[in-house]
Amino acid sequence: MANSDDLNRRNFLATTTTVAAAAAGAIAESAQAQEHAPAPQPPVVDPHAPLANYWQKQVFELAHVDLAAAAPELARDDIKERHRIFSLLLMKLIRRFWNGNKSGPLGTYPRRAQQRDASADRYRGDMLASPDSFRVNWDRYLGHNIACLAVDGNGEIIDFDFNHNNVFRSTVEHAESRLIRRLFSLTNISDSWNTGDRLPGKSRGFSLNSVTLYTSLESCAQCSGIMSLGQVKEVIYLQRDPTTYVVGNFMFNLAGKDSQNRPLSPIPVPASAIDLPVFDELNTAYKAFFEDITDAKKANDKSRAFYISPDETIVDYDPSITSFLCSDRALDIFSDGAQQFDALTLKFPRASEQAQPAKWTNQKCLQEAKRFYDYADIEGYRGSPHKL
Predict the structure, then answer these.
(1) In this predicted structure, what is the pLDDT of residue 18?
(2) Lowest CB count within 10 Å: 74, 229, 309, 311, which one?
């Protein structure tokens, strides 16, 4: 190598080192300046607004809901029992209208062996033990086993609905948003089900601030927003949805309260807070499903796929929670919940009779729940039971 080349290389290295050192110093100075710079102001006018109060706090604090403060009544065992009645009713309704045919009744669903009708070489879409002419069989239904139930402050059931995304080829036809929209329309209903008292000249949905929604899956941003606009009191959910990022908790903490000190967004209550083991069961089962089907895709193991088309051109390894909620494992959990509802024995049957005379007792709530199931069993059609 020529001396001039060696000299040029030394000059290049020296120059590069100098420039890099200068750049590193500039970055350090910039970081130090940012560290000591005043934090940007939250985009709110009121310095005491919820967003302003959380502006410089940790994400955990914004995502955490203190149920002891937000819903102190949940410390009472009789109140928990009342919530369990309606949560188990919801599980029985989902079991009654169960349909795992996310991709239709034909083909192969390796994780739905017990839902296969071998005699007809297709998968069942309605799990009735003895279907008859009065009940519709939904084997071609393309939907999800996600549903919710609305109950007023006395304990009277208003209505229920299912997720209908695939039916409408839409990603926004979620159970909660569909149900809230219908609650606002229950004005002139002619039906066998009593939709309850309402304010004169107003629809049933005019006042939802005493209504509790029981939903099988943690609500998304859309549904949380619609429930907030409807001023629903609280939402009790049976399973966490990791793709919603606890948005209901964020909205509750940021929405604030009205002039009567009522939250402007529903209180998000996991079923674990009402002592329902199904919350942990569903979460644990979905985690196992996710890990197993993800591994199956890597191994190209069709025996653990979610769905295989009849011509085998489609092999679906979808790890989504909606796929899990079509599986035999999920069906087993909801079947167990349905059995618990049927065998439910109350420890506090006369609760609310003395403390809050306007509210129904737990015994009357259970009677109402059983009566509603009998009604929905015939008229329900996976939600939308009322003849609008």
Answers:
(1) 63
(2) 311
Gap between the Cα atoms of 241 and 339, Å rounded: 24
- Between CA 189 and CA 13 the distance in angstroms is 84
50-104 tens-digit pLDDT: 999 899 899 999 999 999 999 999 999 999 999 999 999 999 999 998 989 888 8
Whose tokens are 């008292």? That residue is 197
- Name the amino acid, one letter, at 260: Q
CA 215 to CA 268: how far, in whole Å? 11
- What count of other Cβ atoms lies within 10 Å of the Cβ of residue 120? 10
- CA-to-CA separations, 238 to 120, 268, 306, 333, in angstroms, rounded: 34, 11, 23, 11
State the DSSP H helix or E strand holding residue 182, giving kind and residue range, or none if neither: helix 175-183
CATH entry 3.40.140.10 includes domain 74-379: yes
Neighbours of 357 (CB within 10 A): 8
The pTM for the full model equals 0.84
Give, rounded to a whole angstrom, the gap between the first and last alpha carbons of the chain.
91
Position 168: which residue type? F
